[in-house]
Design brief:
mainly alpha
């Protein structure tokens, strides 16, 4: 029941925030925009989980624990491999061009706080809760939810040009979600997934559409 309520909360409140709250951030200074934006993300994604796990330590229940060293190294290796493949496909298949180093705001959002918050929600909570129905189901179902949470931004902010872009981005995020779910269930910690998630976002930020 908690999982259903939390899913509905995310769908409704995140969509409302993207539609009415997020556009106002563009008119703020960069630092203030990042602070407000990430605070809203925390309140929407993470704060409700404190209510759900109020009878025990929420962080431990959500997999916010240091895993064995071999899994941190494994996360780094998986992340490096993922980034190399992503950049190769971006340049050779998608004909994307190199952007250079992302702006500093990215390092406080897409590379850090956003990845931790999303991993707590989608792996620490959803994957773990759904694992009672089997690990494969948990990984796939949480990955689908991970894809769907991106749709309000894509659609309401007009970020993607057409159905092909929706399809390719959805498939890419679904595959990422599967890898993140597998890592989480194997080691019981979000941190190897945070590493992979952050590096994936960095690889995406380093390239843009264009080129040949």
């Amino acid at each position: 029941m908690h999982a259903v309520a939390y899913t509905v909360w995310l769908a409704v409140i995140w969509t409302a925030y993207v539609a009415w709250g997020y556009p106002h951030l563009a008119g703020m200074s960069a630092g203030f925009s990042v602070a407000i934006g990430e605070s809203c993300r925390f309140l929407i994604f993470t704060a409700p989980l404190f209510v759900i796990f109020q009878s025990r330590s929420p962080w431990r229940a959500l997999g916010v624990r240091i895993p064995p060293g071999r899994w941190l190294i494994g996360g780094l290796l998986v992340a490096a491999t993922w980034a190399a493949v992503s950049l190769f496909l971006a340049s050779r298949i998608q004909h994307r061009t190199f952007n250079g180093v992302p702006e500093i705001a990215f390092w406080f959002t897409g590379f850090s706080t956003a990845t931790v918050i999303e991993e707590v929600s989608f792996r620490g909570y959803f994957t773990q809760q759904l694992s009672r129905y089997g690990s494969r189901f948990a990984i796939v179902a949480s990955s689908v939810l991970f894809v769907l949470i991106h749709f309000p931004g894509w659609y309401l902010l007009n970020l993607l040009p057409g159905y092909r872009a929706y399809l390719s981005h959805s498939l890419s995020i679904l595959l990422l979600g599967v890898a993140l779910g597998w890592l989480f269930l194997k080691c019981g910690s979000i941190w190897p997934g945070v590493i992979l998630h952050a590096v994936n976002n960095l690889a995406a930020a380093l390239t843009s559409a264009g080129g040949g």
